[in-house]
Amino acid sequence: MKKVLKVCGLVLTMLMFFACGKEEKKAIYVGTNAEFPPFEYLEDGKMVGFDIDLINAIGKELGREVVMKDMSFDGLLPALQSKKVDLVIAGMTASEERKKSVNFTEPYYSANQVIVLQESNNDIKDFADLKDKKIGVMLGFTGDLVITEMGLPSEKYNAAYAGIMALQNGKLDAVVLDSETAVNYVKKNPGLKLAEGKGEAEDYAIAVRKEDTKLLEDVNKAITTLKSNGEFEKLLEKYFK
Ligand code: GLN
After folding, report:
1. Which CATH code of 3.90.550.10, 3.10.620.30, 2.60.120.20, 3.40.190.10 fits the domain covering 26-108+205-240?
2. What are 2-29's pLDDT values in tens digits?
3. pTM for the full model?
4. What is the pLDDT of residues 172-222, one digit of tens each?
5. Where are the beta strands (DSSP E) in the chain?
6. Atom of ligand 1 lying closest to residue 160 CA
7. Does residue 33 have its Cβ closer than 6 Å to ligand 1?
């Protein structure tokens, strides 16, 4: 009888070991909004960009498969909280407001809000010149917040390219957008330029559910490793230099 119990115990321990092992290795679901080049965008129907490479490198460090889910930007944090995804990487600014509902990893990129203009526009040099102008922002982006906090009205768009198109068509005087994405659009669309003035620096970080402290720690460790082994620098060079 003792022997049977012993064997049962052993089998149980093994089962638990495998179950836990599997738990560790299960895929991580990651939400993004693939309309924010060069961080995440679609190329021939495939999701590519700095954030996509970064999260895949993090997944490799953790030994977990990364499954990307593309959704609207304002749906990302609700999807994280309702456990449809485990992480969010979307050039997302680790803002004080968002920190109330989610945790953020160590920052991985620093950006600013900038103003995109038609090349012929010489009236707008800085944020202070935006008063009484037709301003476009992306709904729920930090640019939206900056303009709202300045007490200025704005047209809201769901994606950066839609705001840029409205600017090109003369429906707007200015679009307020994150610096790297703005530079990207200006490069690809002749006739557009950036105003000289810049907003305050904002840190991009990966969002994690408040209760997932172990995952937060693991992702932070992976970021530190990628920064110290040169992989992170390679990604910066690939996309920004
Ligand atoms: N950094 C901006 C924000 O967090 C925009 C991010 C994005 O459009 N993907 O609101």
Report:
1. 3.40.190.10
2. 666 666 566 666 665 555 554 457 899 9
3. 0.86
4. 999 999 999 999 999 999 999 999 999 989 999 999 999 999 999 999 999
5. 28-32, 35-36, 40-43, 46-48, 66-70, 87-88, 103-104, 109-118, 135-138, 155-157, 174-178, 192-204, 207-208
6. 8
7. yes
